[in-house]
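User: Fold this; tokens only.

Assistant: Input:
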Amino acid sequence: MSLPGRLRKAVTRRRLLAGSVVLVLVAGLVGWAVWPDTPGWKATDQRITVRTGPAGDQPVELDTRFYLPRDRSGRVPAVLLAHGFGGTKDSVASDAESLADRGYAVLTWTAQGFGRSGGQIHLDSPDYEVRDAQRLLDWLAARPEVRLDAPGDPRVGVVGGSYGGGLALLLAGQDPRVDAIVPSITWNDFTNVFLPQSAGTTATGVFKKGWAGLFFGNGAATGQSALGSTLGAGGDAGAGGGAGATDPACGRFAADVCQAYLQLATTGVPDAATSAVLRKSSPATVLDKIKAPTLLIQGEVDTLFPLSEADANARGIAANGTPVRVAWFTGGHDGGAGPKTDQDRVKYLTLQWLDHYVKGDGAAPANSFTYSRVAGFSALDRGLVTNGYSTDAYPGLTGTGSTQVAIAGPAQPIANPPNGNPGALSSLPGSGGRLSELLGGVAGDVPGQFATFDSTPVTGAIEVAGAPTVRLRAASPTGEATLFVKLYDVDQSGAETLSAGLVAPVRLTGLPADIGKASEVTVTLPAIVRRIDAGHTVRVVVAASDQAFLTPARPAVYTVQAGSAITLPTVVGTPIANPQTIWRYVLAGLVLAIVLGLAVVLLVRRRLRRRRHDEVIEEYADTPLVVRDLRKAYGDGFVAVEEISFTVERGQVVGLLGPNGAGKTTTLRVLMGLTMPSGGDALVFGHKLGPGAPVLSRIGALVEGPGFLPHLSGLDNLRSYWRATGRPEADAHFEEALEIAGLGDSIHRKTRKYSHGMRQRLAIAQAMLGLPELLVLDEPTDGLDPPQIAEMRRVLRRYATDGRAVLVSSHLLAEVEQTCTHAVVVNKGRIVASGPVDEIVGDSPSVLLDVSDVPAASKVLEGLGVRSVTPDGPSGLIVDMNGTPRAEVVASLVRAGVDVDRVVPRRRLEDAFLALVGDNSRGSGDR
């Protein structure tokens, strides 16, 4: 076997071995990646029977799931994880798994009245749902895996959202064994929730019929939750075991709860029994008994349980000296879980709170207040992105400061429609904050039913964080009025935004019929977090109707007048660096480092290249062009130029010849620094060529056709090109270039109107601007007519004087023969001949004869034994002499009476070219 063969075999073996190793590694990595992870927890489903009811003697079966860390060591702390209204134990499975992964024993269950659990819905009644949770604490205390504080007392935290959050508060107020709680998006007082009153008056609030109906419809249903995932619903929401037959009017609601809803929905004013039911299920009744450290998380986009509910809980719990921390986020019953940035922050706060107060790890969390504001959209998924902020202490709803914004507008009449229809639309309960998507911006106020009071554009941005207040006067012919006060942020285009769809319901009684006799009342609007940018307008709207609330059935016309200013609470918080932000900074730092590294590499490379370009090989310092062993191969293996070497001296016009694909244009591109060679080099006056080489300024070129700005004239194109060189206009020699172009007045026409020949002539003139010492032209006569071609011959010969040189690539061999002093013939990427044109043409084996009698001359020549005789015109003959001396041919013709007018050699450059490259058209590209 030959040495190359052995090398190929060895290389093949090594590649095969390396490929096999890589394949095994990749297969192993893929297998590892797709192999199902073993969870860090294990879960057990079981049904637990608890004793419930006022006397604790009513058995109810609860559907539960118990999670334990897989790699626990000894007893572990526990978390009781409650779901939202309409949900089941499956609704909180993801959170339970995360907590179990962190080392907690987690017990989830489906509250009675939902899913597969028995019992009825009592709205977190202390006698039922709360007592159920107490029995589950007993069950945890009996588990050998759960850490105890004392016999029967488990180390436990209680976490829940909405319905589950209310249970956490009520349980902590009823059972001192609870060590910490994290209630989120929950309520303080059901009376205030479903009968909100935003004015400083003792009148009963306005019934929140939209949310109340959604609650009742969800609990009465026996199928899929009407609330969906808004309140944590999910999994099996149907009627469960033990529920028995349900009343079609009340579903799985307890009778007293059902009656309370029906009574309130009918009248809009609660009776004593309804008030008692609402009050009994309100955490407000037990706040003074809560000793468990409390983290309150509340949503800023929540028309059900607004920020004021968490504020009331925080103030009530903190009054006893219990540690309390408050966090607001840009989600809620209308905003869902909020953007990912907020979800990460809330999860971090929750785990930090539980780890310290339940697990006993880490320092005590600060009692600082944190909140967030939407900052824009993510570039990755177009989802919302928030910025988080913190202050040292919870400021309540009044903020750490305030800004008064003057508003103006006359007293205005507004109409209350009969039965509230049509009514203004501010929010859709349970829509998950998708009101604008669902309505396409249609939501708003009904003409004739609202009054507006506007400010002038604010001069600086206002960071609102809290509950704005405004003074209001109203008059009504009925002595009563139900009003809805809203705060709009209006941008410069007039687009108005109602933050989170929040409105302030107001029910006023004892009103005069004349607005002049009305007294002012203070209206506290829902707390918001919003930046009102400079140039925006603050607009206060007072409406007579709202689809989400119950309004008087009797039509009436009210008169309303807002005060002269609205007070906006403000908070200046310290930005929180959340993990996503930190990662963004790290990524930005890495990108910056890479950019700087690349910049340094490019700078060093440029300096090295400039140093190479500045180096002069003295041997060739006075030679216009030296090409040494030039080679150009492409990545796909195609070799455009195999090996080319030639020299262009001063005073020479050198023709670069070859068939299509021979490598002529590639060679010219390398010479102009437009492409890098794979081997060899090119020297211009001793300087190595490369992209950006300063010596390129000494070359004028036309390669691969001209390119001009079509909207400029020919002259303007030439001037623009020369200005780009940065050299003085006097050095351009425009007159000589324009004389060469020969365009006459057409030089002032736009080049888009030029013919191909005109563009070619302009391109040649552009190449000659500045009279460069080396002129490189690729097919310069393409598109020129015969007179222009003849002129081009004279121009190029004249140009190669005064020490200049010309390199021409052309297919017109006759023109090269008449124009060039030297030629370089290229075929299949190699030079097959080079030197003076006369030497390449050489001595001719044939002659051209002009004779007086062609037939007679042909007969004489045939007798002399020449190889061939070919007529050429009326008096010409081309004769292949076959070694016969010319003198003998002429003498024989004269003796035969044939006059000979001319005898010239017949070999041309074309003949030499065909002899060198063959008569086929295959070039380098066919190899």
